[in-house]
Specification:
Blueprint lengths: L6 E5 L6 H8 L2 E5 L8 H7 L5 E4 L7 H7 L5 E4 L9 H6 L3 E3 L6 H16 L2 H10 L19 E5 L3 H11 L5 E5 L6 H5 L1 E3 L2 H7 L2 E4 L13 H6 L5 E4 L8 H9 L5 E4 L12 H4 L3 E3 L8 H19 L10
Parallel strand pairs: 1-2, 1-3, 3-4, 4-5, 6-7, 6-9, 7-8, 9-10, 10-11, 11-12
Length: about 325
Amino acid sequence: MSSTGKYQVYVTRSDMPHGGIELLKKQCKLILWNQPSPVPRSEFLKSVVGANGIFCSLTDKIDKEVLDAAGPNLKVVATISVGYDHIDVQECRERGIRIGYTPDVLTDATAELTLALLLSTSRRLPEAQHEAKTGGWVSWAPTWMTGPGLAGSTVGIVGFGRIGQAVARRVKSFNTKTILYYNRSEKPEAKEIGAVKVTFDELLMQSDFVICCCALVPETKELFNKTAFEKMKRTAIFINTSRGGTVDQNALIEALQKNTIRAAGLDVTTPEPLPLDSLLFKLKNCVVLPHIGSASIEARNTMSELTANNILAALNGSEMPAELK
């Protein structure tokens, strides 16, 4: 699918929210991959030739090969995500290609999903629904399907940026006892929230719930490994809504199998989608979601429009609403 316009923009999916696509159509010729699924690599390399801009998602690897294929007219790569680990940032900078992303607009949606996943895991909702649907629900029982509550608990948040802070504000309303956070720098917002900065090890050892909200960078790759899980309470619940690469997945599986920790709730995995034969799907103490952290209708529409406006601003030589510096 294509449209006419001054600039040529390659869009890597046909199911991008329409708001951003309509904005681009006013000034750009759009080349769209015609399936609501990630574009195959060979098709991507062929169709991106001559593009002035790329509208991509976190499933699209933007590396030297793609940039070479696009050619010297490529001015901007804009991703409909807050994460940008799928983009070779250094290569783009060396070529003078600007990068757009979508911070802020998905904060509330991701924080809401984080709380939903935490509650679903701790209160064992998927297990309980399965029992109700398959005959396991025989009668009320005092200890059946019980799980830990948030009230009076210690919650540790790793990564205290916009999303981490939004999660902290929400868990505070559940009458938690203490909110701890681990971050490279002190966050002034923590004082208003009532969160206390601690070391990573202190957070692991003291928290009843450990929530990963940090970006995936070299320093956080497999931050949650065997050593980390062994430092956590045996009653702890681990939640990850950041990136799958922050976790050594084999170590997590072992920790869940051996009851090193109580349970885990994951919105992100490695790889994505997770193979159906993954042990994570077979463990009763693990809830896995298909990376839907930002999947509120409002958030996705706003992300699409912001991505389009990033592209248009870059192509017109203007200040981008959200440029990665």
